[in-house]
Amino acid sequence: MSDIKKVVLAYSGGLDTSIILKWLQEEYECEVVTFTADLGQGEELEPARRKAEMLGIREIYIEDLREEFVRDYVFPMFRANALYEGVYLLGTSIARPLIAKRQIEIAAETGADAVCHGATGKGNDQVRFELGYYALNPDIRVIAPWREWDLTSRTRLIEFAEKHQIPIARDKRGEAPFSVDANLLHISAEGKVLEDPSEEAPEYVYSRSVSPEAAPDTPTIIEIGFERGDAVSIDGEKLSPAALLTKLNKLGGDNGIGRLDLVENRFVGMKSRGIYETPGGTVLLAAHRGIESLTLDRGAGHLKDELMPRYAELIYNGFWFSPEREMLQALIDKSQEHVTGTVRLKLYKGSATVIGRSSPYSLYSEELVTFEEDAVYDQRDAQGFIKLNALRLRLAGARARRISQRG
Description:
By secondary structure, the protein is of the alpha/beta class. It has three domains: 145 residues, Rossmann fold (3-Layer(aba) Sandwich), CATH 3.40.50.620; 138 residues, Argininosuccinate synthetase, chain A, domain 2, CATH 3.90.1260; 38 residues, no CATH class. It contains twelve helices and 14 strands. It has a five-stranded parallel beta sheet, with helices on both faces. A five-stranded antiparallel beta sheet has the order 10-9-8-13-14. A four-stranded antiparallel beta sheet has the order 6-7-12-11, with no helix packed on it. α3 crosses α7.
């Protein structure tokens, strides 16, 4: 790796990536390009530019990727109703492929021969970033400082920063209470005060939602419009993907929706405890399943549900750019051709409940399901249907009876 001339660093402007930036300059004696992505984390990004300039960086990329993030990553994932281990909406996982893609593109634009991330050697993100890098540029070289350097404690990081006059926010001088990752889909917290899974997370950990107990006593009723599986409007107002998710975050958060306390299985083998807030995504998932219940054929819907855990696991483990994820995406997208219509939901004290749905492509027939007299369904037809389906059960039952009689 000693012949690396230029590296593209995924740079947040925080303490850790600022230390990494200086460490790259010292350890590899290479030119560093910084890339800071605005994925809706809700932070001012210009300080990252100023800090990079202060550290001598000439090529600085700061990009607003919110629309691309929701349109090309979040929405395709939500077409699948993806949940990892049955509950996690994959907020961190789905952001990594886009960051990796832009790093590889910037490396090509700037003539860089390596990329660098700030993920630790214990977590999932190192895998997600690097699988993305190698899928998009098999020859790229990757620098992962946390697997290389000897700055293995917060004290050593602070000492390095002070030695090189890297600004340190006051709250970083002590042990941070927990680690946070945020984007437009979710915010997550883990570590420190959250490491004991038997202890309830303190209320101050939550920042995107009120507690369900403190939510309004009056429900909020909203209507979400869908076209081909993607949400396109709220209460009749057409919105861009990022604007729509932003509005759902506000509506969901105000009603205490989207909190999750999860002990999950990391791809690297250990269990970890995380606190997640995904208010808009939780509402969106309920609405999408609501419109699918009206428009998806039973066989197609059940097949989607069978494939979903595999699809979610691929995203969680970092295989967004894999052939199998793309194959599954093609199948999922095909299923969404007629997933168009509107869903009405009640948001109330932590829950998002579907209370109405309609679609021009509905497969629901009032004539067929009515309890009143109808002329389209002959109930006598059910007798032969039941007898045919019971045939193998009757044969197995007769065999069991013969065996018991012999015994």
